[in-house]
Amino acid sequence: MNTPVLKEIRIYPIKSLGGISLSEAVVEPKGFRYDRRWMLVKPDGTFLTQRENAVMALVEVELTDRNLRVYHRHRPDDVLEIPLEKTTAESLTAYVWDNQAVDSLVVSPEADDWFSRLLGFPCRLVYMPDESLRPVDPKYAQPDDVVSFADGFPYLVISTDSLNELNRRVEQPLEMVRFRPNLVVEGVWPHDEDTWYHFKIGELTFFGVKPCARCVLTTIDPESGQKGKEPLKTLATYRKLDHKILFGQNVLAETTGLLRVGDPVTILEQRPARLPFSR
Predict the structure, then answer these.
(1) 267 sits in which H/E element
(2) pTM, whole model, 2 decimals?
(3) What is the pLDDT of residue 98?
(4) DSSP of 152-175, one letter per residue?
């Protein structure tokens, strides 16, 4: 194998909407800068995702120097501009998994109206300010480890080789965007990322926490918003453990700073894979 490298960096500024591919990004404890710092919620603060609202898969997000630009892929002229720094002073407690309460700020009435029209029911767009600290599950992290509005961990790493192995088994090839990684690495064996306990990308170090259990969101085609059976149907034949289907690894950052596409990946410490893969 060649020396592994960071092939792609991806962020998802608004949870469960479209992602953005970057050439470089700032690593912060909660996740990449601007990654899942915004989230759609019901008026009572309950979070919303593609799992129940597949139309969210069709919403694109672009990052400019000052704003997020948001639009439905089939209605590109109806654009919502969201300032990166400015929000209202209205606070709202948002609830993520297991009713985990997160102190948040409402972005704007205009954002609420735009997304309510999109989804067809009242909703609000909230922002996680820097002082809002959402802890990572203490079973897998230190007490001071925090995360954005991401499902559970600040980063997700997947190798292109793991996707290639999946595509070798399915009838129609699937794109990496379906799995919503932050760090895409190439040049390793399929699923080798499962074993990375301590690793380095460029000059920054990370800890692998545990393989990522995948849900029905991966079965939503990001191009059409339609649900299917793949990839879970095929992954279940060789990536199932304890009733969970695993693909990619959840990650915590040990150090912060700048990452760039093309940075080398160095494995400092490995552990046995929970789900061994026969090469």
Answers:
(1) strand 265-270
(2) 0.96
(3) 85
(4) S-SEEEEEHHHHHHHHTTSSS---
